[in-house]
Write a structure and sequence with these properties.
The strands form 2 sheets. Strands 2, 4, 5, 6, 9, 10 and 11 form a 7-stranded mixed sheet that branches. It is built from no helices and 11 strands.
């Protein structure tokens, strides 16, 4: 079993920055992909970014590429999402996700992830 816990959400003005963290515990040795998704009110959950264990390959959605950066620590138990140049459209609940499969490029479908955190709210005001 794997447990994921997000932190670092909050409120910020447009153009500002936030850094999200996700702590993974349990059988983390079975995980090959870590990712971030988000869900805004009235919308479906969407892919944001992902990183793989093998080669630390990264993938981003078009809406955040160039503004967000995903990374992990060397132990593969801490996942980060550095969010810069935030926009009101980035307002959502952000979820950390972990998957047991590897892919190149990294998996972007929610169904390809096996474990999920509870989510952390990010609010960007104009």
């Amino acid at each position: 079993q794997v447990r994921l816990r997000e932190s670092g959400g909050g409120s910020v003005q447009a153009g500002g920055s936030l850094r999200l963290s996700c702590a993974a515990s349990g059988h983390t040795g079975t995980l090959y992909t870590l990712g971030w998704f988000r869900q805004a009110p009235g919308k479906e959950r969407e892919f944001v970014a992902a990183i793989t264990w093998i080669g630390r390959r990264t993938e981003y959605s078009d809406s955040v590429r160039g503004r967000f950066s995903v990374s992990t620590d060397s132990s593969w138990t801490q996942l980060y999402l550095q969010m810069d140049k935030l926009k009101p459209d980035d307002t959502a609940v952000y979820y950390c996700a972990a998957g047991r499969s590897d892919s190149s490029p990294p998996n972007v479908g929610a169904h390809e992830y096996d474990y999920w955190g509870q989510g952390t709210q990010v609010t960007v005001s104009s």
